[in-house]
């Protein structure tokens, strides 16, 4: 009897009974050229600070600092399937913002390769408003 009970406990404790981990994939990365040439098809979010945004940003980008995503939800597209491109200075904050947006149900997210430095290195226009 003890053997049967031990076997049952061992079977229940085996990893085969565990649920699979939630599958999340990193957002696809787009080049600055892809963002520039398709800008009218994207909601572009600059997730840097307001001060960094004022120093220059991708034309048409909306500034929502990465730590204010929840507070500024009204500035986000209502259509959670709409394509959204995120960028910052190094990619760290854009990644954090993408994770936050995914948790809010947004599933068509993209990161811009090279972020703002990648944009400026290409010599593309910068807005200062």
TrEMBL record:
The Rhodanese domain sits at: 38-128
Signal sequence span per UniProt?
1-18
Question: Annotated Gene Ontology MF terms?
Answer: thiosulfate-cyanide sulfurtransferase activity
Keyword Signal appears in the UniProt entry:
yes
Record SUPFAM superfamilies: Rhodanese/Cell cycle control phosphatase
Q: Which Pfam families match?
A: Rhodanese (PF00581)
Entry keyword annotation includes Amino-acid biosynthesis = no
Q: Which UniProt keywords apply?
A: Signal
The identity of this protein, by name, is Rhodanese domain-containing protein
Organism equals: Lacimicrobium alkaliphilum
